[in-house]
Amino acid sequence: MTPGIKKKEIEDIFENLQHLLEYWVKFKKYLFKSFTQEPISANDETDFLEIKSVIAKYMRTLSEKIKEGYYFGSDKIQNLTRQCISISHLRTLPLTDRKGLLVDWHTVYVIITRVAGAFQFMKEGYIPKERARVASSVASVKAGASGKGIKKEKKKISSKDVLKTIVIIGILIGAVLFFLKRLGRF
């Protein structure tokens, strides 16, 4: 399989991502309730808090299992679930804030779906290639940006190239003079 992750671990991670996605979609159902005027029951609030709790559990589990290089949006999930204290609290927020929460929900949904898709491919036998290491220090990033760390290949100009350029310039000057003379301006 992939370096550092066994097939069984990949299957477990994929299964946890699927469950996280399932609860993430349920979480959206309660976000949508904040846009309506229908009454919120005590069961709705309890279910909402339970869903947040299960999402937090899967987030912790996945954070422990998923190694470096696979991002599933745990910071965004945590930020969003902290902002959503309860359904009734969500209703008190301005409309633009609630719409922003839905945008954040969708962003996380896309991230989770992408990483779940990646683990599904690995589960089916795909072995990802090793990625090149990204510059890890500020000095190496600055050197790359300034061009100091990059060797530039100098192109040598041959005498034939110089001669061709002179001939072409001469022909162009001759043509311009010829046309100016024909027009009577020279």
Please explain how this structure is put together:
The protein is mostly helical and 186 residues long. It folds into 2 domains: 7-123, Four Helix Bundle (Hemerythrin (Met), subunit A) (Up-down Bundle); 159-186. 69% of the residues lie in helices and 0% in strands. The protein has helices at residues 7-33, 42-65, 74-83, 87-92, 95-123, 138-146, 159-182. Helix 1 (7-33) runs antiparallel to helix 2, helix 2 (42-65) runs antiparallel to helix 3 (74-83) and helix 3 (74-83) packs antiparallel against helix 5 (95-123). The longest helix has 29 residues, at 95-123. The chain is elongated and about 95 Å long.
What is shown here, in short?
The chain is mainly α. Helices cover about 70% and strands about 0% of the residues.
**Secondary structural class:** mainly alpha
CATH topology of the largest domain: Four Helix Bundle (Hemerythrin (Met), subunit A)
The stretches of 5 or more residues where confidence is low (pLDDT under 50) are none
Helix content, binned percent = 55-70%
Q: Mind telling me the C-alpha Rg?
A: 31 Å
Number of helices: 7
* Mean model confidence by pLDDT: 84
Report the order of strands and helices.
HHHHHHH
Strand content: under 5%
Estimate nothing, just give the exact number of structural domains.
2
* Total strands: 0
Q: How many angstroms separate the termini?
A: 79 Å
Largest sheet: none
Which CATH class of the largest domain?
Mainly Alpha
Q: Architecture of the largest domain in CATH?
A: Up-down Bundle
Shape label:
elongated
